[in-house]
Amino acid sequence: MSQSEVARKLHLNNSIISRIESGDRKLGATELAKLADLYAVSVDYLLGRSNQKNPHQNPASSDTTDLSGFLADTGSAHLTFKGKMLSPEQTMKLRIALTQIFWDELALPQR
Question: Composition bias, kind Polar residues: at what positions (predicted)?
Answer without folding.
Answer: 50-67
